[in-house]
Amino acid sequence: MSAIYPVILCGGSGTRLWPASRADQPKQFLKLIGDHSSFQDTVLRVANLPGRAEIVIVTGGAMIDFVLAQTAEIGVPVTVLVEPEARDSAPAVAAAAAYVESRDPDGVALMLAADHYIAQPEIFGEAAVVAARAAAQGWIVTFGVKPTSPATGFGYIRPGQALLDGSVSAVAAFVEKPDRATAESYVADGYLWNSGNFAFKAGVLLGELDAFEPSISAAARACMDVLTLDGAVGRLDKAAFSGAAKISLDYAVMERTQKAAVVPAAFSWSDLGAWDAIWDAFPKDDKANAVSGDVALIDSQNVLVRSTGPFVGVISLSDIVVIAEPDAVLVCHRDASQSVKALVDGLKRDGRAIATGRDRGDGPRRVLTTVGDSEVSIWTLAAGETVELPVGSVQILAGDTTLNAALTAIDAATSVTAATGATLLVTRRV
Q: How far apart are CA 9 and CA 391, in angstroms?
């Protein structure tokens, strides 16, 4: 059997999980359910897979410290490929595939999202081995989850002809998120939720990209031609990577290929896309309440209450969400969880920095404002401290650093060290 190379995509900001999840600490790094973040749980799920080889993380420069710290915390070594800019999932997956192919031409990549919840890791492991076996024979395999309800927030897969020993089926169709009535018919007809996780032979995926989106496969191979690792971290070349079309893997390959297959997965799965999904996955008391932090409930049921800051008391309420952070509080009906994004979008339009970053007062990172897709923040560095600056620009307001100019454009994530205490004005895209 081909070696399995887990590839974990670790991007995104989880807007619908505001105020806990923001650009400066996205949802995949938050410990929302249990003692580990969803990123850590994803790494742990693949750590002991039969035939597992190198674990590859694809992320942005602003998230390197999170990735390294959280993998060190659970004691699992990884290789980190750093995107110079976000160009949707297809270029990121292609770069990882090119890396796997450079390490092992017969390697199978197991591509997983970092922010999903799976309740039965042992069942996931069994499905992953089946998917990898089919991928080794040339199929691009997606995990299709048996629906537990006619959900309208997921895409669906219509399974087709049985393949191999019957454990895998060809994909007859991918369908977009349906309305309620359509979702009910999909469930009745045996459709599966599209989990957005895949297994494929690295060379097979790159070959399909050669046919459908050649700019992406060319960019991925060009990145590998010049890639060097600094310890566990390799930075993808900005000039090469920027040549890739900005498109998702679903649109670039999965909806066009004749090699799509699906392995039905019996594990409980959620993309943790909104607070109602957190409530679904969270352990509950005898009144179906999910509680975390300094919280007290009286005569309440079916509520999710989470606090990392103030004490929260809830009396005689049901079916609500209360999320309390030190600088922001969200209260909404559980059924309105998907509308949190609209609230955050409004905050962004109003230039409210609280939409994307935490107010840390006079601490080392203080977001001043967000205008459009640009965030401006103050960074305070101690003497000798080294930080990673994101793509954007930086102005030295006080102190001495290893930067060559008082105002510098940052074309790729860059390390800077403060020779003395220093204050920086950092502008980046969010």
A: 19
Residue that has been written with the tokens 């102005």 in this structure: 395
Instruction: Specify the pairing of strand 374-381 against strand 117-118.
Output: unpaired
pLDDT tens digits, one per residue of 347-406: 888 878 788 877 655 456 777 777 767 788 888 877 777 777 888 899 998 888 888 788
Distances (CA, A) of 258 to 140, 188, 324: 9, 26, 48
Residue 336 backbone dihedrals phi, psi, to 5 degrees: -100, 10
Q: pLDDT tens digits for 190-200? A: 999 999 899 99
3-state secondary structure the chain: CCCEEEEEEECCCCHHHCCCCECCECHHHCCCCCCCCHHHHHHHHHHCCCCECCCEEEEEHHHHHHHHHHHHHHCCCCEEEEECCCCCHHHHHHHHHHHHHHHCCCCEEEEEECCCEECCHHHHHHHHHHHHHHHHCCCEEEEEECCCCCCCCCCEEEEEEEECCCCEEEEEEEECCCCHHHHHHHHHCCCEEEEEEEEEEHHHHHHHHHHHCHHHHHHHHHHHHHCCEECCEEECCHHHHCCCCCCCHHHHHHCCCCCEEEEEECCCEECCCCHHHHHHHCCCCCCCCEEECCEEEECCECCEEEECCCCEEEECCECEEEEEECCEEEEEEHHHHHHHHHHHHHHHHCCCHHHCCCCCCCCCEEEEEEECCEEEEEEEECCCCEEEECCEEEEEEECCECCCCCEEEECCCEEEEECCCEEEEEEEEC
The CA–CA distances, whole Å, from 224 to 52, 80, 89, 316 equal 22, 13, 17, 59
Based on its alpha-carbon atoms, the radius of gyration of the chain, rounded to whole angstroms, reads 22
**pLDDT of res. 362:** 47
Instruction: Give Cβ neighbours of residue 404 (< 8 Å, ≥ 6 apart).
Output: none
Structure tokens at 240: 């090469």
Counting every residue written for the chain, the total comes to: 430
